[in-house]
Amino acid sequence: MNLLSIQSHVAYGHVGNSSAVFPLQRLGVEVWPIHTVQFSNHTGYGAWRGQVFEASLIGELVEGIEDRGRLVACDGVLSGYMGSAETGAAILNAVGRVRVANPRADYCCDPVIGDVGRGVFVRPGIPEFMRDAAVPAADIVTPNQFELEFLTGHTVVSQTDVLAACERLHAKGPKVILVTSVLTDETPVASIDLVASGPDGRFLLRTPRLDVSLNGAGDAIAALFFLHLKRTGSAAAALRAAGSSVYGLLRRTFEASSKELLMVEAQDELVQPSTVFEPLKL
Q1: Within 13 Å of residue 133, how many CA atoms lie on the same side as its CB?
Q2: Cα separation values, 65 from 71, 105, 249, Å
Q3: What is the end-to-end Cα distance of the chain in Å, rounded?
Q4: Rounded alpha-carbon distances, angstroms, from residue 266 to 78, 172, 226, 247
Q5: What's this model's pTM, rounded to 2 decimal places?
Q6: Engineering a disulfide at 9: which of 19, 35, 88, 139 sits with its beta carbon 3.0 to 4.6 angstroms away?
Q7: Per-residue DSSP letters for 63-114?
Q8: pLDDT tens, position by position, 15-61
Q9: Which string of b and e fits 115-135 if b means at least 16 CB within 10 Å?
Q10: 2-10 vs 50-52, strand pairing mode
Q11: What is the arithmetic mean of pLDDT over 73-85?
Q12: Which residues, 6+ apart, have CB-to-CB distance to 39 below 8 Å?
């Protein structure tokens, strides 16, 4: 499998491509990373060095791969945080070129907009671009609960609300949806939920809730869910594999009191999770 991953990149730590590429490679995928930025570390530290690349660089690099005659072998495109609407437009242009070369290729969009407690944390115009352009173009989307509410205009309080919001999101175009960081009235206090919705049904996966907030976990689960969905064709199987792996990765990181995901040290969790959680059909 060959996947084109267009995301940010940091030299230290694991967010964006620094969180998505290694898990995919560890599981046998050939990844073609295109970096939209290159920073010393993620911006959550409050200070960083590096630069944002021009959106035109995305098109140049995709054209270079096309010159090699390899876009026909690209099985899918993965995108995450978009620093500007121009970057977003360049990513969608890249998706279009890949689909021309290989109509069977899929586009997985992690519509990074914000989160509960933090609100919207991307630049003005990005939330609307995600809602009106990126999500309708995607085959698979992986919003968190806050982003699901924004994209659909549907408040989520119960599991029924989650499913109703997913139906609204399906109506915009995506065939498969993974909702992360789900907390509803039915979620136990010490737990957190993931919900997947696809042609094979609607599924919930519940794991213990860890007292930790780590940048890059969403990037990792989007990549893993995309990979396992491509391999199995099943939203349930992808939810089981990705959710179990990321829980193991987070647990190992939490136990070590690390501020960065232990992506390399805990890489066995990517291949054989220490705890496997079974999804429940809703």
Answers
A1: 18
A2: 6, 15, 33
A3: 31
A4: 23, 37, 20, 11
A5: 0.97
A6: 35
A7: HHHHHTT-GGG--EEEE---SSHHHHHHHHHHHHHHHHH-TT-EEEE----E
A8: 999 999 999 999 999 999 999 999 999 998 999 999 999 999 999 99
A9: beeeeeebeeebbebbbebbb
A10: unpaired
A11: 94
A12: 8, 9, 10, 11, 48, 49, 50, 51
Q: What value does the CA radius of gyration of the chain take, rounded to a whole number of Å?
A: 17
- CA distance linking residue 135 with residue 88, whole number of Å: 11
Residue with tokens 């070369």: 101
pLDDT at 213 over 90: no
Residue 83: per-residue pLDDT: 85
Contact 204, 279 (CB under 8 A): yes
In angstroms, the CA 122 to CA 214 distance is: 17
**Residues 123, 128, 131, 134, CA torsion sign:** negative
Return the DSSP state at 144: B
- Specify the pairing of strand 30-39 against strand 2-10: parallel
139/262 Cα distance (integer angstroms) = 30
Q: From CA 36, how far away is CA 83, in angstroms rounded?
A: 8
Beta strands in the chain (DSSP E): 2-10, 30-39, 50-52, 76-79, 106-109, 114-115, 119-120, 140-141, 176-182, 191-198, 201-208, 280-281
What letter does residue 54 receive in the DSSP assignment? P
Residue 51: partners with Cβ closer than 8 Å, 6 or more residues away: 37, 38, 39
Return the structure tokens found at 199: 């042609």
- The secondary structure of the chain in percent helix, strand, coil, rounded to multiples of 5, reads 45, 20, 35
DSSP 8-state assignment for residue 182: E
Answer whether 166's CB lies under 8 Å from 202's CB. Answer: yes
Residues in the chain: 282
